[in-house]
Amino acid sequence: MHKQLLDANFSIITSLIKEKSRVLDLGCGKGKLLKHLKLEKSCEVQGIDVSQQEVIDCIANAVPVLQLDLEEGMSFFQDKSFDFVVISQTMQQVHNPDKLIREALRVGKKVIVSVHNLAYWKSRLQITLKGMMPNTKHLPYEWYNTPNIHLGSIRDFYSMCEKESFRITHVYPGGDHFLKSFNKNLFSEFSVFTLESH
């Protein structure tokens, strides 16, 4: 994802997390978010990532991390053992996003999910005019060389949450288009959702 969008995503997520919270980041990458929360908000943090290099980077950043495949579950965490579970720009890279969210809702009191939006107007334009999968600043991969398994829209995410009975409490549209709040599915490049158990 483009740096400007990453920064916007980062800002939205950090604004949602209260000081001294217990935070689990699924697919934490280099641990930038967790390091910030630990230093700036005195949060107790834990990261999980499958990549050995990302785990090494987390350790270098003094971020506690476990090298695990998210798809294998988190049975070793007790119910509601975290105040927040973050799934940032990771949903499209797992085989069963619904199961991941269900497990995140089990271990976390609140879940923050950030998702790409394939229905963003620039992506739609590329598909319509070029007849090709979009290659944009928020989806910078060629279709044949991407870590993304599932690409969907904001509306797709709403639909999945409804079918799976996941309760969305807030939605924060991301990107720089001035109409993003008017029509999230068309004008937001990504959105950040907060979810809670029923």
TrEMBL record:
It comes from the Bacteria. Coiled coil: none annotated. Pfam families: MetW. NCBIfam families: metW. This is Methionine biosynthesis protein.
